[in-house]
Design brief:
The structure is a single chain. The protein is α/β, with parallel strands linked by helices. Strand 6, helix 6 and strand 7 form a beta-alpha-beta unit. The chain is built from nine helices and 14 strands. The chain folds into two domains: about 200 residues, TIM Barrel; about 120 residues, Elongation Factor Tu (Ef-tu), domain 3, CATH 2.40.30. The strands form two sheets. The chain has an eight-stranded parallel beta barrel, surrounded by five helices. A six-stranded antiparallel sheet has the order 11-14-9-10-13-12. Helices cover about 25% and strands about 20% of the residues. The structure holds pyridoxal-5'-phosphate.
Length: about 350
């Protein structure tokens, strides 16, 4: 879809910590390059022998410019001191490092304020080890600001001003992440926006403004299986004088009489509980500690037993934490051969 609008897509793998099978699937699906916010994840992909152009999506640390220049093709930038250090590191290696300048357009995470962009570009043009390859903006991540015709037009206007200054056409005018897809299908993305960095829409099949399923995609490409360790009838209200739980919170529980509670072998250390949905809709999540998830299986048609697995779909936050937890085993499966033993 992006291609038909003249937009090349960089697949963002940070949601799965740069899992090589997922990156390969993205490349088979038509992305032109890969990006991640962590260098460790990019190194994992490179070590797996995946050859493509790699973009570092998080601002490079001043302390790691050598490594960035040595292993990354394009990095996003917003600090001239870092650009200078990248340039020096690149010069020492006899190479030129590509940078995408991030512009702040309201979401208030990374980015150069628009009125400081041209002075930044002027300073960066003096640096022989870097090349301004594109400009971009990131929205809907921190401040929840949605892409609009206005902020996209502003990006194009700024890109044009940068092009006049540098004297060449920028390769990428990067306006979008998953939150920009609605604007794109509405035909309201300016023509000159030609690059998107997409993670969640590919991984979980959702645009990220309303989190609606995207037509023609799967929402269950990632499933978390957890095993029942204990299954017992217990009251629904804790018994005794109560103070804070293990996380310093005082959770409220409703009195629903006795219930059949299953304890599963995942916890807050492995997954964001609020981002899990049981595939069995008769199962409800009661709460969790670091290592246990407690679910109510009182009214399920399936008679679960100790050792059985419950399966959950995940939102982005949950997927990210699952990917990061070394306690959760990751098993890739082929489309169509997903079964209980996959
Ligand atoms: C994470 C990230 C993306 C991808 O965002 P999705 O909402 O997952 O598509 C794009 N750009 C930057 C700078 C990011 O940090």
């Amino acid at each position: 879809m992006c291609q038909s609008h003249g937009i090349s897509v960089t697949g963002v793998t940070k949601g799965v910590c740069g899992q090589p099978e997922v990156a390969k699937a993205m490349l088979r699906g038509g992305v032109s390059s890969l990006a991640d916010s962590r260098m460790e994840n990019i190194h994992r992909l490179q070590a797996a022998g995946i050859h493509t152009r790699y973009m570092l999506l998080r601002l490079p640390p001043l302390s790691e410019v050598e490594e960035v220049v040595g292993t990354i093709d394009v990095s996003v930038n917003s600090e001239i001191a870092v650009a200078e250090a990248l340039s020096q590191a690149a010069c020492r290696r006899g190479m030129v490092h590509d940078v995408m300048l991030m512009v702040e357009l309201g979401d208030l995470r990374e980015g150069i304020p628009p009125d400081q962009l041209l002075p930044f570009v002027r300073a960066a043009m003096q640096l022989s080890g870097i090349r301004i390859q594109g400009i971009g903006t990131n929205l809907a991540c921190f401040g929840g600001v949605v892409p609009s015709t206005d902020n996209m037009a502003r990006l194009v206007e700024l890109a044009t001003a940068v092009e006049e200054l540098v004297g060449y056409r920028l390769e990428w005018i990067s306006g979008m992440n998953s939150s920009g897809l609605d604007l794109l299908v509405a035909g309201e993305t300016p023509m000159r926006i030609n690059h998107a960095r997409i993670g969640e829409a590919i991984l979980l099949g959702r645009e990220t403004v309303h989190r609606r399923p995207w037509p023609g995609t799967f929402q269950d490409a990632f499933l978390l299986h957890a095993e029942i360790l204990e299954l017992k009838k217990k009251p629904s209200l804790p018994v005794g004088t109560r103070s804070e739980d293990a996380f310093g919170e005082l959770p409220e529980y409703q009195d629903r009489g006795e219930m059949i509670r299953a304890l599963l072998n995942v916890g807050r250390e492995d997954v964001v509980i609020e981002g899990m949905t049981p595939l069995d809709s008769q199962v409800t999540i009661v709460g969790a500690s670091s290592g246990y998830l407690v679910v109510d299986v009182t009214r399920t048609d399936t008679a679960y037993g100790v050792g059985d697995e419950l399966i959950f779909s995940l939102n982005y936050a949950a997927l990210l934490r699952v990917s990061t937890s070394e306690y959760v085993k990751k098993r890739p499966f082929q489309a169509g051969v997903r079964s209980s033993d996959a």
